[in-house]
Structures are given as structure tokens and as C-alpha cells.
Amino acid sequence: MEEERKLLVGIDLGWETTQMTCFDFVSYEPVPIGRKIQGQRVYEIPTGLAINPANGEWYWIDEEYAKQDGVICLHHLLADVLRDEKITTGRYAIESYQALKRFIVKLLSLLKEYYPADMIRRLVITVTERQERLREYLTAICGELGIPKGGLVIQNHRQSYMYYAVSQPKELWAHNVGLFEMENNMLLYSQIDIDKKTVPYIVGVTQKDLSDGIDWAALEKEGASHISYAFLNAANTALHKQLVTTVYVTGKGFEGSWADEALKELCVGRRVFRGQNLFTKGACYAARELAGEGKLEQCLFLDEDMIACNVLLRVYHDASVQDVMLAKAGALWSEVDSSIDVIPDEEEEIRITIQDVLKHETRAHMLSLSGFAGRENKMTRFTIRIRFAASNTCIVTLKDNGFGEYCPSSNRVWERYIMV
Fold first, then answer.
1. Closest by CA position to 300, among listed 327, 325, 329, 324
2. Pair type for strands 119-127 and 152-156
3. Phi and psi dihedrals of 256, rounded to 5?
4. What is the DSSP track for 249-265?
5. Residue among 117, 113, 248, 82 at smallest CA distance from 181
6. Parallel/antiparallel/unpaired status of strands 57-60 and 49-52
7. Among the listed ranges 144-153, 325-334, 351-360, 371-380, which one has the minimum average pLDDT value?
8. Average pLDDT for residues 262-271, to the nearest whole number?
9. pTM
10. Using the 8-state DSSP alphabet, how is residue 295 labeled?
11. Does the structure show a pLDDT above 60 at 1?
């Protein structure tokens, strides 16, 4: 039952490691969920699995069982899943979907050690970049596991970063906020810009790849002092003339001792925070907000994967004319899929209103119903469905459902694209 669903969960599904957090309503913060290894909780879980074909048993990739003869190890599970529909190693082959499903099942089963009687209410999975196969697999897997429709959201790291940064004390985002990620010879800089002249605040993020400006091969040979110099040079260039007073750094690249001194220099005039769980916590904060339990109503998050407009339908309901919200600004365009049934009353067209929150413009689109003429008034029920083909392309679908046995459906479907 829905009332039993309490858990708000964030997962950072990474190429090498995965982390999971669950929102705690006592501390009002995300808490890490980990495995117990030799009596200690470990919160970074390798994104890999091992299978024993002889008995069909699945193990974590770093378990002792995974070292047995005949056990097949999938060290790069996420990359393998995205590469092909089947994963083949030697003579053994398994569907990518099933391998990812096994990993997600084992991961979510850790929640039972903490919350044995509770079920997931909202799950947000964050990945480096959303890819269609991964989105389809995760959606289907969570459906099989009983997570209700609408209970899963898949978002990229930039979106999780926005949720994380703006969930911190307000003094940390009084101005713009920066994030450096360093891992696997890659250095990315993402900056959050907050427009507080609007209500709600518009929170956006831009990202720059600083990797090309660094000679990674030379750095490996020349040592820590050169890594520190290269990073500070790239960081100061990115931050030049930017009103950034809070900086976060994350990634395995910052685990070396060189980072301690480099970050001290970066601290001049700024507050700098280092950690490895920013994205899973950001996903957990997003789960809180999307479940209606948050405190960020004054903020509207936007990036290239989110729509920058509200989509409304003008209807007559409860003795008054109303605009019903069918898509809300800040939603991921690929997640928008809403519908409503209407019965026209001497109407020859429907009105779709687009409210652009960035340009502060409102446009009305009148969509003709002339193709469905020929029936008596109030004897046709339509389903109006709203989806998006891209962040700036709205799809309006109109389906004739007839009116019971009095007016059978023609099964006609009419579709229009609206550039927003």
C-alpha cells in the first residue's frame, strides 16, 4: 500500500563505484547505505558482479566467493551493459538487462538491513550522462521490483549537483557555486548560476571540460607538484572574474596528498569542500523534493535536459474556467507523459497555454477539433496527452474515445508538435 512507502533513496550509479543514500527524517539529511565487511560499513560499492555458472549464484565483485575457480567476473558492469544487449566472457553469455537487474536487486536489498519494514516511495538514480538503453533498462527493472509508476527518476550528475548545492545552508549559495570533478584523466568544471531576481529563483548549471589543457601523461611522470600546478592553473582560469564563493571538489583524482595544499590555495576568498558522495546525496535531496517533502519551492532547476515552460490546458471544471497543469517547468523532458480526458461542450478547438519561465512569455495555441466533427454536443470524450520529443519540442496527442455505446470510438489519433 502507498502509505507503507516511506523511503526516499538516491543512487549514484558510477562506472567504477556505486553509492546509495536514504533520507532520514530525524536528522533531515541523507544517510549513507553500505555493506558490512568484517564488521565495518563500506559505502563505496564496486559497480561489478561475479557469477558462478555452476550454481547460478551472484556475488559482489570483491567478495571471497568471486575468487573461486570457474566464477566469472564482470568488473566493468555499466560499460558492458551499455556496449551491447549481451555480455559475453569466454563461453558464458548473459543478457545485459539481467546482469544490471541482478546488481540493482543486490544493491536495493541493502536497504532491508536498515529499514526492514519500509518500502521505497521515491528513487532517484543519477548517472554521468543519461543514455537511452540505460534509462529503458532501469525503468523496466524498477517496474519489475514493484516501484510504482512515477516513483523512479533518472537524472545526470549536473542535476544532482544542483539539488545538492541548493540544499545546503543558504550562505553557501548566496553567490554562484563551482564544482570540480577529477577522475581518469578528466577534469570537469560545473558552475551553478542562480537568478534571484525572479520568483521562483532560476537555478542553472553550465559545464566546461578542462581536460584538454592538461598533459596527463607528463603529469604522471613529473609528480604531485606538477599535478597541483596544472589543477590550480585550470581552476583559476575557470574561476577568473566569476562570483563564486563556494567550491566543491569530488573524484578519485583529489585523493592524493597534493590536493591538500592545492585546495588551501583555492580557499582564498572562497569556502572549499571535498568529498566523494556529492552526487548520491544530491539524488537523495531530489527524491525528497520530488516526493513533496522538500523545502526548495522557491527554486526552479533548469538545464538542457529540463523543460523551461509550463504546459497548461484550459478547461471548465467545478463551475469555473481553469488552467490544468500538464507539464511543469524543471521537469526532465523525457519523463513528461501526462494525460487528461475532456468532453467538449460546443467547443471547436482546445487551448494549450505555454508559459516560458525564462522569457516570462505566455503563448496560447488553439488546436482545431474540426477533424472530429459530426457528433452531437457532449457526445465525444477525448484523451489529451502531453509528451516532449526534446526539451523545446512538445507533442500534443488527441485520441477519440467515443462516448460509450452511444458513440463508438473512431480510434482516430491526432498529433501536433509545438516548439516551445
1. 329
2. parallel
3. -75, 160
4. EESGGG-STHHHHHHHH
5. 248
6. antiparallel
7. 371-380
8. 92
9. 0.90
10. S
11. no
| d(C-alpha 281, C-alpha 164), whole Å | 6
Percent of the chain past pLDDT 70, that is, above it, reads 97
Cell of 172: 553557501
| Dist CA 361 CA 310 (whole Å) | 11
Give the pLDDT of residue 2. Answer: 47
Instruction: Say if residues 7 and 115 touch (Cβ distance below 8 Å).
Output: yes
The residue-averaged pLDDT of 275-290 equals 96
Assigned C-alpha cell, 178: 563551482
pLDDT at 206 (0 to 100): 94
Q: pLDDT tens, 19-67?
A: 999 999 999 999 999 999 888 999 999 999 999 988 889 999 988 888 8
**Residue 49: which residues within 8 A CB-CB, separation 6 or more?**
58, 59, 60, 61, 73, 74, 77, 99, 102, 103, 106
- How many residues does the structure list for the chain? 420
- Section 95-124 average pLDDT: 96
Give the amino acid at 220. E
Those residues with Cβ within 8 angstroms of residue 266's Cβ, 6 or more apart along the chain or in another chain: 232, 235, 247, 272
Please say whether the beta carbons of 14 and 47 come within 8 A: yes
The answer to whether the peptide bond before residue 30 is cis (omega within 30 degrees of 0) is no
What DSSP character marks residue 211?
G
At 374 the pLDDT is: 65
Report the relative pairing of strands 49-52 and 40-42 from DSSP bridges: unpaired
Alpha helix ranges (H) inside 267-301: 278-290
Q: Give every CB contact of residue 204 below 8 A, 6+ residues apart in sequence.
A: 192, 193, 194, 195, 301, 302, 303
In this structure, are residues 323 and 309 in contact, taking their beta carbons and an 8 Å threshold? no
Q: Are 160 and 30 in contact (CB under 8 A)?
A: no
The whole-angstrom separation of Cα 365 and Cα 307 is 18
DSSP assignment string, 139-181: HHHHHHTTPPTTSEEEEEHHHHHHHHHHTS-GGGGSSEEEEEE
Instruction: List C-alpha distances in Å: 134 to 85, 221, 381.
Output: 11, 37, 37
Q: Which three cell numbers stand for residue 165?
A: 548545492
How many CA atoms lie less than 13 Å away from 74 in the CB half-sphere? 30
Would you state the cell numbers that stand for residue 7, as one nine-digit string? 523511503
Residue bearing cell 508538435: 417
Say if CB 331 and CB 198 are below 8 A apart: no
Gap between the Cα atoms of 350 and 327, Å rounded: 16
